Amino acid sequence: MIQHLQDTVTLHNGVQMPGLGLGVFKVEEGTELVEAVRTAIAHGYRSIDTAAIYGNESGVGEGIRQAMQDNGIPRDRLFVTSKVWNADLGYEATLSAYEASLEKLGLDYLDLYLIHWPVAGKYKDAWRALEELYKEGRVKAIGVSNFQIHHLEDLMEDAEIKPMVNQVEFHPRLTQKELLRFTTQHGIQLEAWSPLMQGELLQEPALVELAAKYGKSVAQVILRWDLQHGVVTIPKSTKEHRIIENASLFDFELSREDMERIDGLNRNLRVGPDPDNFDF
């Protein structure tokens, strides 16, 4: 289990992926974004997650460069993720999209590149492009996002390389137990986006009660729940005190009974689109 902010999980290809990172969904280009990335890295974060559709890869790259210079951190100590958007899910288009992301980020390679959504009839061609990038050593690991079990089964029927990561919406009201079981069985690392349900869970009475019991915030309890399930997580914040708080997860452990209590909050509720009914 992850016991420290810079602890990692080992992907099925041997790559080490930090168990906790910073997400930047909906953070616009500008000083706030650059400072959030700089702050996170200064406080020990080593994983930054962005995507082409977020429109903020340039700011993420600038924050990374400034943080590396300020803190003397080499590039190979960081883990940077981006994602190919739906409009670019073709073999050649995906290859071009990867180059565009690298250029905006100002990086020579990505640590993880994901297919953002399972667009029917398109993700297999995009996956061939990711496999090519991986075989050429242009990216350290490849994976998918928002894939359900049937999407993964369909992809793996023809894939030469199995996805290393599946990043999905995952929180106490959407526990996706069958998907977690499936990915674990197949050696695919599950990663949580929107782990706090975009803040909707912060007033949940059962979680407020548990936070008081452990002397922690509700957010810390939820993120600790993620880690104890073996799920990598990338909470988003631009505020320094929240960035620090979100990483202060390693001085307590939820009991088995409390883990099960949080599991019991599941309602199969999403704040994001349904991967099977997303209007692409």
UniProtKB/TrEMBL annotation:
Domain of life: Bacteria
Annotated active site: 54
UniProt KW Membrane keyword: no
Keywords attached to this entry: Oxidoreductase
Residues in NADP-dependent oxidoreductase domain copies: 31-266
UniProt xrefs under Gene3D superfamilies: NADP-dependent oxidoreductase domain (3.20.20.100)
Sample GO molecular function, one term: oxidoreductase activity
Pfam families: Aldo_ket_red
PANTHER family: 2,5-DIKETO-D-GLUCONIC ACID REDUCTASE
Protein's name in the database: Aldo/keto reductase
